[in-house]
Amino acid sequence: MKKATDLNHLNEFKLIERIRSRLNTNSPRVKKGIGDDCAIFSTLPNKIQLISTDALIESIHFDLKTISPKQLGGKAMAANISDIAAMGGTPYLAVISLGLPTSTSINFIDKLYLGLQTICNSYRIKLAGGDTVTSPKQLFINICVLGEASKNRVFCREGAKPGDQIFVTGNPGDSAMGLRILMKKNKNLISTNHKNILIKKHLEPTPRIKESRLLAKSKLKVTSMIDVSDGLTQDLGHLCTKDKLGANLYEDKLPISNALNSACMQKIHTSTKWVLQGGEDYELLFTIKPEDVKKLKSLFLKADTVISHIGEITRHPNKITLIKRNGNRVSLKPETGFNHFKRK
Amino acid sequence: MKKATDLNHLNEFKLIERIRSRLNTNSPRVKKGIGDDCAIFSTLPNKIQLISTDALIESIHFDLKTISPKQLGGKAMAANISDIAAMGGTPYLAVISLGLPTSTSINFIDKLYLGLQTICNSYRIKLAGGDTVTSPKQLFINICVLGEASKNRVFCREGAKPGDQIFVTGNPGDSAMGLRILMKKNKNLISTNHKNILIKKHLEPTPRIKESRLLAKSKLKVTSMIDVSDGLTQDLGHLCTKDKLGANLYEDKLPISNALNSACMQKIHTSTKWVLQGGEDYELLFTIKPEDVKKLKSLFLKADTVISHIGEITRHPNKITLIKRNGNRVSLKPETGFNHFKRK
């Protein structure tokens, strides 16, 4: 019985047919989805195109003991469309490459695709095809997402100037603490409710597409933007690199969630570190001109997501400074974040 | 010394910077290449877009003992742009995900990118970005390529009708025999010259972009097209599936190269099998209306690549028949080709 439900007993074409029958790939824009050498689609006039690709590898980016296949599909897609959000774009099409060990069950693949499809449906993204191959050891998922933006309204990493004000959405640090709890490394007492909030932030992140659209549709002078995937300090460093800028961050403005605070036993020093160094937050970190701060805050009054005004850009090359609650200044190292080659 | 040249000693950002400094990503169409969350590009008006993605995994699709890093980069890109050629499109942009074991040397990555860049330069494709992650065991390369075609001139797998004539470019079977020689499984005596031709076909395939352009620019009634990656018979099966068609193939018309013939010790039966079942040929297999056969042949007189008129489409559902030199008819099984889940 086991044999009939794993990949050894399903060839590539039957698998593609199975996937196709479960996905709704046709749309006015996607003339042809899964099943030919390429997918065929059209672009809208007067738009600029965005493309991003991200690979997630078992035992590096995820552990199948702590994430369900549906969550994995959802998170892989969220991580990719977050890159489109980071530039103020709207994702509309994705292609997926799966590297599957032959022992992978059909049930696993169905649930993985359910996760991918659910998030695609939420954001009106068409799954237009991909490739499915054997991977001898680890499972991997590579997604390539296309998005589009108005020609003169794309947000890049470079563009901030001294005096620009720094904002971040949501609660960075929660995801990394969620991972720590999943790995059973957090020994502190914490309520089930808070635990679940943090774990959900890690396993089911929300890409900030809505928030990015709100900014893109506004007339606010957004001068730079990035999504926080490697930790707030490190990603802030990317906004400063090109023009040799620095930044001041204010500890008392950092958005420490109640759940993170409780997981850190209310130790401010520890929770600050989690917010600054976390990783896989998929929150938006951006800068705006000082004169637009009020307008930004009123724009986000209508949104479900909180934004926090956490600091400002300075002229000090590559110097990110944390101004602590007691007024002391601490220099932060931008590189103390996530290094994809050194995680293990 | 060894340590300073492997990935453990280069973080992701330094690696991206190193790759970026070696690639020429800016062009009028690519406003922003490597280095931001997404690449930004524009599309041409009145064109339809094509997208394809392919993953190559060490020990499944290639063996680092038999392919150089430069050849690997070139072949990975060729396999991907061949999918664009198969639909009559012109590739213009690619993004690449690399999964690298930490022991990978910087020299290896430089040569891999040299291979990728060389083929991209030949076909005017811009490498616009990608993702680089650690892979615990196997190296993998995932490429996503974008191409474009005229709105009413895209060739699909479906579309052939009974009576349509079947053509193939080049010499299918050579690549698979090249692999066999590389794996030292061919015990026949064969000249060094022929050996080198076959090995080169396997390691350095030429995607049929030029030939595809020739067809797309012509007014010939091309009714279906595919690139031969899983073996001629199997891929011909894909042209027949949708409309429940069959095909006749003529053994004496199959393009058996001198090199393949010599590797098969002039045994017709054996070389026919290699041509029909090979794999990784990246030749174009297509059908045209019978009235256009003459025009097609004269069109290809100017081309560097030979085309062979190998058979015709029939009404017999999913029945592919080989008419042998002696007039006998043999039924071919379309599924006797390459199954990505069963290669090992």
Question: Can you describe what's shown?
Answer:
With 344 residues, chain A is an alpha+beta fold. The first copy, chain A, folds into 2 domains: 3-150, 60s Ribosomal Protein L30, Chain: A (2-Layer Sandwich), CATH 3.30.1330; 165-332, PurM-like C-terminal domain (Phosphoribosyl-aminoimidazole Synthetase, Chain A, domain 2, Alpha-Beta Complex). The first copy, chain A, contains 10 helices and 13 strands. The first copy, chain A, has helices spanning 12-22, 69-85, 106-122, 174-182, 192-203, 209-217, 232-241, 258-263, 268-277, 293-299, and strands spanning 30-32, 39-41, 47-57, 90-100, 126-134, 140-150, 165-169, 222-228, 246-250, 283-288, 307-314, 320-323, 329-332. Chain A has a 7-stranded mixed sheet with strand order 8-10-7-11-9-12-13, with helices on both faces. Chain A has a 4-stranded mixed sheet with strand order 3-6-4-5. Chain A has a two-stranded antiparallel sheet with strand order 1-2. In chain A, helix 2 (69-85) packs parallel to helix 3 (106-122), helix 2 (69-85) packs parallel to helix 6 and helix 4 crosses helix 5 (192-203). Chains A and B meet through strand 2, strand 3, strand 4, strand 5 and strand 6 of A and strand 2, strand 3, strand 4, strand 5 and strand 6 of B. Strand 2 (39-41) of chain A pairs antiparallel with strand 3 (47-57) of chain B, so a sheet runs across the interface.
